[in-house]
Amino acid sequence: MHKYRLGLEELDAAVGGVSGGSGILVEGPPMGCKQAIVYSLIKRGLEDGEGVILVPTMETGRNALAAYGDADNLRVIDCMSRPMGMAEAVSDNIKYVNGPADLTGMGVWSGRLMDELKGRPVRLCVDSISTLLMYSHLQVIFRFIHLLNGRIQAAGGISIGVVDEGMHDEKTMASLRQLYRAALELKEADSYCCVRAVGLTPRPTPWARFEEVIE
Fold first, then answer.
1. pTM over 0.85
2. What is the DSSP letter of 6?
3. What Å distances lie between residue 91 and 16, 110, 136, CA to CA?
4. Is the per-residue pLDDT at 215 higher than 50?
5. Is 121 helix (H, G, I), strand (E, B) or coil?
6. Span between the terminal Cα atoms of the chain, in Å
7. CA-to-CA distance for 122 and 119, rounded, in angstroms?
8. Could you tell me how far CA 66 lies from the centroid of its own chain?
């Protein structure tokens, strides 16, 4: 059975690979460390030959695709180009919806892309759930993510959700944590950050120092 790697050497050694059907919530400050962690999670999947479905809510599909070297096995659901009035790039790797509130469009395209990538391991990342919550109620987002996670996990993939630390009350965070089996927790120091996995091993992994910079 395929084991998914996190792209973070110390965590991968501690966890021994993530089983298909898992969900991971990444919590951290809006910029910096968290985005570097998310970048590594996506990059590792691409390098391992997995199909990756990325739903970025703060950048265009064209920019997201370029950030990962226009990888053939990356599919991007673009939430930003249409609201910004930008021309849609002609690319089989980018699918467009009408904005971060268009959950129906995101759901339809994620299902189609899963079918398109069928036959290979798949990881799906929503970056970020916090943005979606700016446009829809918690109950609506909860149902949407629950459905999305159910589809990807039933196919033996892994789902990754990203949430901005400090933006939501504890009730909201408790609801979001119910949707994911595990979490990557972050803490920042002066020039680096530390990360640990919770829920992928019987006990939380030791804090691992992470210093990768996105070029």
1. yes
2. -
3. 36, 16, 29
4. no
5. coil
6. 33
7. 9
8. 17
